[in-house]
Amino acid sequence: MKIDIISVVPQLMESFFAHSILRRAKDKALLEVNTINLRDYTTYKHGQIDDYQFGGGAGLVMMVEPLVNAIESLQKQKKYDEIIFLTPDGENFNQKMANTLSLKENLLFICGHYKGIDQRVRDHYITREVSIGDYVLSGGEIAAAVLVDAIGRLIPGVLNDETSALTDSFQDGLLAPPVYTRPQEFLGWKVPDILLSGDPVKIDEWRHEQAIERTKIRRPGLDEA
Fold first, then answer.
1. 103 touches 79 (CB < 8 A)
2. 2-152, which class in CATH?
């Protein structure tokens, strides 16, 4: 999979992609992430990529021309399955969407800034608009990093244990059950006996029951979403 990210400040994401699971995915040639500096595609002086809103109002808007230049230049090199704009008013990102996007070959993310991007880009180029929550960030870089991480770990071969992602929260409409590790007893707090029984069927049943109970308490209605 290849993911290209158009950003005003691409250096913000360099460290994030250079470590842990995403670094492993890159080293295995399973995931390629490229950050593109939008200022490289502007024809305006001093690398300008934003301007005041027509009609007045506070806040700057990312200009149509640099974004179109960048998108069309990248499209000449590859065909994108999705061109995604990270924006607070997009559809909420969830595990189901991560699963769907992990099956794609080429994705392009556009990180918004200021008051967003010129609507004409959204009308003519964007295929999907995504939000990571009902709040506003200074830019879309953090949101893009979240999507890359959630999508990248689902690519076969990225995780050492490929079944791990299948038991994460939200994969089956439930939160994950409680987990324990050594020591078996600490400060009088004991690991549930069932997990020490060695009976995989009973352990799976217990975990499923715990997942249902935890979901009912913490996220009622999640399994109906």
1. no
2. alpha beta
